[in-house]
Amino acid sequence: MLAPETRAPAEATFPATAHVYICGVRIDNVTKAEATARMRGWIEERASRARAIYIVNTHTINLACELPGFRDVLNAGDAVFGDGTGVRWAARLQGVRMRDNLVGTDLAPYFFAATAGAGYRYYLLGGTEPIVRAAADHVVRTYGVALAGYQQGHFPPRENGDVIDRINASGADVVLVAMGNPVQERWIHDNRDALRVRLCVGVGGLVDHWGGALRRAPQWVRDRGFEWAQIMLQQPHKWRRYLVGNPKFLVRCVREIRVRRRHDTHAAR
């Protein structure tokens, strides 16, 4: 149970808010439908610079607190969406109800369905060669999207220019970048000016899910906020991220709330 001074107010009293700051990371508070409308608008506007979307969870935010410059990379994105129970819990401490859980494994299929017939072309970047090849086949068969191409995500820096050239030559509208945090966000941030695409989205382990390397947790597990446990069971090398990282994240959020309340109290005097 939360201590009295940190207990979130009842959900019914939560005000509507466009965004929330968690450990200094600005997260947009939108539904899947609103996120889809925003993404579609950016594709259609044909801007000269690729738009960047990042999806953050507790691990991403921990990295933003620990890695120099990473918080600035996230906040330079055109949109940052929240993924997971930890983000929702942290928002509730501030009296904000997150309107949706925008995990990439749900958002991408939702976007495919909502924009069916629009003719958007996608490029997959991430995973190993066999995994991304299997993911590409799965996406075409399952969702019927037009795939402009795919590329495994493990390449040396000297090949980066060639990767960008292949993406640009493919005619893709959207690049789904699945390199993991913080690599994918930094790659998007560093290369968005050179990419002739409309939208870059950091999607983490999505290619591994599509390619068969990871199995999605059952719906009842997801509904109870324990999808991270399913991932840890399949990727035990990530145990520290969850068993150490999750408590560290909660401590950071509680400390942030207490500092903010002390500041507000002093400002009101």
Overall description:
This protein has 269 residues and is α/β, with parallel strands linked by helices. It has a single domain, classed as 3-Layer(aba) Sandwich (Rossmann fold), CATH 3.40.50.10700. It has helices spanning 32-45, 58-66, 70-75, 85-93, 104-114, 129-143, 160-170, 183-191, 206-210, 219-223, 227-234, 239-268, and strands at residues 19-22, 25-28, 51-56, 79-82, 121-126, 146-151, 174-178, 199-202. The strands form two sheets. A six-stranded parallel β-sheet has the order 4-3-8-7-5-6, sandwiched between helices. Strands 1-2 form a two-stranded antiparallel sheet. The chain starts with 18 loop residues before the first strand and ends with a helix. The relative contact order is 0.15. Residues 1-15 have low confidence and may be disordered.
Whole-number tally of structural domains: 1
The major sheet is characterized as: 6 strands, parallel
Top-tier CATH class: Alpha Beta
Instruction: Using the CA coordinates, give the radius of gyration.
Output: 19 Å
Strand order of the largest sheet: 4-3-8-7-5-6
Strand residue percentage: 5-15%
**So how many helices?**
12
Order of helices and strands: EEHEHHEHHEHEHEHEHHHH
